[in-house]
Each structure stands twice: as C-alpha cells, then as structure tokens.
Amino acid sequence: MSELRKDPITGRWVIIATERGKRPSDFRVPQEESDASECPFCQGHEDKTPPEIIAQREAGSEPNQPGWQVRGVPSSNPLFVIEGDLNRTGVGLYDMMEGIGAHELIIESPNHVREISELSVDEIASVFEIYRRRMESLRQDQRFKYMLLFKNHGEQSGGVIEHSHANLIALPIVPKTVKKELEGAVAYYGYKSRCVFCDIIHHELTLNERVVVENDFYIALTPFASRFPFEVCILPKEHVSRFIYTDGKHVKSLAFIIKDVLRRLNASLDNPAYNYLIHTLPVNSVAQEEFHWHLEIFPRLTQMAGFEWGTGFFINPTTPEAAADFLRQAE
Amino acid sequence: MSELRKDPITGRWVIIATERGKRPSDFRVPQEESDASECPFCQGHEDKTPPEIIAQREAGSEPNQPGWQVRGVPSSNPLFVIEGDLNRTGVGLYDMMEGIGAHELIIESPNHVREISELSVDEIASVFEIYRRRMESLRQDQRFKYMLLFKNHGEQSGGVIEHSHANLIALPIVPKTVKKELEGAVAYYGYKSRCVFCDIIHHELTLNERVVVENDFYIALTPFASRFPFEVCILPKEHVSRFIYTDGKHVKSLAFIIKDVLRRLNASLDNPAYNYLIHTLPVNSVAQEEFHWHLEIFPRLTQMAGFEWGTGFFINPTTPEAAADFLRQAE
User: Touching check for B316 and chain A: CB below 8 Å?
Assistant: First the structure.
C-alpha cells in the first residue's frame, strides 16, 4: 500500500509508492519496448489484466473475452487501494496517512493502437462515454471527493505501456491544483457574478489570437498564461460544471475536437509525448455556476529545470499566440 | 524581454520567454553535443561570454583573460533583464508585468569539467564563496527581494551547456515555493518557539534512518516526504538563516559534504542528471529565528506524469529510508 506523507514545513503531501519500491538499478534500465504480441491490453489477452469492471462489447460477447471496443479494468499496480481507512497517524515529528482510493485503467481499443487520435470519431466518443460512466459510478462511493482522469502518452509523459489507455483515479481528498482553480473561479464569480471560464471563452472568441479550433459545442485555445509550449485547453462553449453531464449529442462533438487538436499537435511537433487530463467540479462542491469543466493537453517538450523547482514558476519559451498560429495552420 | 503573465483563474504567474521564441521545429532537434573546443566557458574563450562581473584570479591576471579559477558573467540569454520597471499592466481580461531581474552564470572551472564533484574540496569551496559574494552584492539592489542559486546538470535536468556552471537569478518578488516554506516555518515557530529545520535535524540524528552523511557543521539527509527518489537536503547543523552568512571556516566543510553526496549519487545512480538549489531567507524578511537555509539536490530519474500535473501531488517510487541506505553504502 502506498503511504501519503506530509512535509512538515510546507504541508505538501507526497505519495510514497512503497510497493513500486524502486532500487537504484531500476532507474538505470531504459524502458523496454513493448512487444505487441505480449501486450496485456490487446484483444485475446484479457487474462493478463484483472477482471474487467466495464466494457463496451458486441451483443452476446462474454466479459473478459474478445468482442469489446473499450474496456475498463483495475490497475494491477495501483497507486491507491480501495479497501481500508485513511488511518491518519503521527510518526515522531511527522504526519502520514494511507493511500485509499481507486485506480482504474480504460483500454481504448482492442487493437494495438498507440494513440487515441488514430481511432475514428465514433470510437473516441465511445472512449469518453466509458470515462463518463466510470466517473459517475465511482462518485457513488461516499469516501471519494474527486475523480481524476488522465492520460500519459509516450515515454517523456511518464507513460509505460504504449497501447492507448487512460488512468482514472478516485481520491479521498480534492487535489490542490483543482482546489486552487475552484477557489479562483469562486472568487471571480463573487466579484463579477460571472463564470471566469465563460468570460475567457467570450474574450478569446472576440480576440481570436489564441483560438486553435472550435465547433458547435467546444472550443480549443492556448491559454494566455500557458505553462508549457503548445499547451491546449478544450472547454464546452456553454457553461457546464461537470464532465459527467456530457450527453450523447455533445460527446461526439468533443471526440471530434480532441481528434482534431491531437492531429494538429502531432503534425506540428512530430508526434510528441503528451499528457491530457480532465478538471471537473469536485463531487461535493455546490459551485455549479462558478466552475466549468475542461480538458488540458500539454505536449512534453521542455524539462523542468532548477529555476522552476526553486521558484514554482514555469518558463514557457513559445508564446501561446505563436503556438495557436502554428496549430491553426497545421494539417 | 520576457513577460510575466498571470493565470486569471489560479493566479499562477508564468514567464513567457518571448526572446527564446521557440518554433515547433526547435523542439524536434535533439540537443547538440557540445564540442569542448567551442565551449564558451573554457579558459581562453573569455570573449565568448559577456564581460565578467566577478572572478577568482591569479594575482596579476587581467579581467576577461585566462588566469581565473571561478568566473561570474551575465547570461547572454537571460530570463530577466536588469534594466527597466515591472510595468504591471492589464491586457483585456488578463494581467501581466515585465521580467525585471538579474541572471548571471557562475563558471565553476577554467577547464572543461562536466561536474562540480570532479573538482577538489578547495576548488568547490571557492565556487561557493563566489556564489556567496554575488548574492551579497545583488542584495544591495533595493528592487530585488530574492536571489535564487541553482544548477542544471545533464540534459534531463534542463541543462544546455555541459561545462560545469550554476545560475544565479535575482527576482523582484519572493517565489512562491520559498514563500510557502517560510510561511510554514513561521507558523511552526509560532506554535513551538523552535525552528522546524532544527527540530528535523535533531529528530533525524536521533532516528538515524534518513541521514546520508554528516560532518562537523553540516548534515545531508533524505527528507521524510521526499518528492523525488534520492532527493537529498543539506543543512547547517547549527541554526543559520541565510546562506550568505557562511564564512570561510564553514564553506570548506560545506564543499566537503557536497562533494561527498554528489559522489554517492553518481556511484549509486550511474551519474544521473540532477538539479541543486539553495533556499535562503528572503532579503527583506526578519524571520531570522524561524528560517534555516538549506541546499536541495534532486537527481532527475522520474518523469512528472498526468497524475502529478492534475493533482499537484508528487509520486515517489523509492522510500527516503531506502534511498538513504543505498547512499550510505555507496562509495
């Protein structure tokens, strides 16, 4: 089980994943190329993962057998385990708790596809529908305060298995980045009585300097204070606080814009490693008017250096305006 | 000039280094191997850097000529420039200011040495003495609230030039990581009337689970809530709030422990990329009793993945106890 340890000076929590227990020699070995014939996520290898929790399957096919399009399974190397209590305890001068939560994987194709944008719009829509259904299911568990959906694509992103998949983690606390965003959005609403994300969308559509692409329901833009070069944020144009409110009509439009943005990034940046993640309203929050769900995509092009670690500031060597311009022209 | 832009939701400042102006193709090119004969930091190439600000030199040698051991120069590609005003301005919905500050490089050897631990203890002591003298000088400028000394060693650390050197940046604001540490230390002192760093040193020496090495004046330990595998913190054993108070007697002891720790990291982890940085009391702070300067070293072994970006939590796959044990046994 992983331990959550609190830094006694800053109050920052760190997850010590003791079960991963890496020794020095583990860091010396380059990551192995995964062999598709051995891939635990490919169709026909369903016995290489824990039993499935959810799947989109052909009528009549059996669980944990071929016949699926999208499949959700528990992680076999979870960061958090679902059983037990937080057990907040003091250890001498220090504070810790146990890593209670859920850690699931969504396998996005039965074939050995390396990247979600290789799938059709309908297939991507099915993937996002499975994300939604699992998030809706996990929020029934009263212990969980937040569900984080994220993807690590490529070695520089922290990805390990190349077969296209996403991680879904349910947490007993609201993570501090989401908390900070929510606090900022609530403060803005208190001052202006308007959603800050809606105001940004309106402002960006008027300026048209940082808009990458838009469709009926979604907009993709490079944020004014982008932390990373070619960072892209996708938001619903109308105010929607939670990702799980995305219905069948909208999910296809979302799939379309995600595929479009990823293809532009791949064309401009020669198939970069990237992360994407969904920020949505925490389970217990009532800030429906204030918060606006969004998906953040950031290609992993730069290294955090001593300056970033020492200050907490990010350095971005490409202006968001230039990045938007390159992405608009890509195809 | 770089721009500081504020995220309208989280309030996070980002430095958009417009002069670095990276285009997509700049990210595709692998970093070039530096050719020692072309190295701008080697002795004999003094004309390839801006004129020196400081140097430790042989008696009778001329500035910007050979004969130096350690040399400080302005960065030719600075993150901040020293002239001008902050010019805080609003741009539509957004806020920004200009990047005023200083950015200097300390070149740590006249020879093409790749890593500071290859130098002798006396040579390392001279390097730290030059760090100290430049920090003392920059704090005379009333505009600067904080001086950050950091090193990027190796490509994974964000390092670009391989010749051993450090960066020194003077900032018009106290960076948020230091502010957070300072707030935590002040809160602890308010509650206990003791320095939290002194308490940690005492506790760790008693437990002896996370101590890597110690000498008369300094201790090196792996923090209880280490963010990174094999993260090491070096602190003066006696309470000292500012790095610039390090006198001649102590600097040699500091050089000795830094060389020792880096050699242990190199032996255990096969010469990893790493960053180190100094956290010291901000210029205008009166919290002399509360804050305790320290040097943080973190080898760059892991990638930040979607989970870390989405939550702000770090995941560390090696316990600090195991890391300390490996480092104690290394030689």
Answer: yes
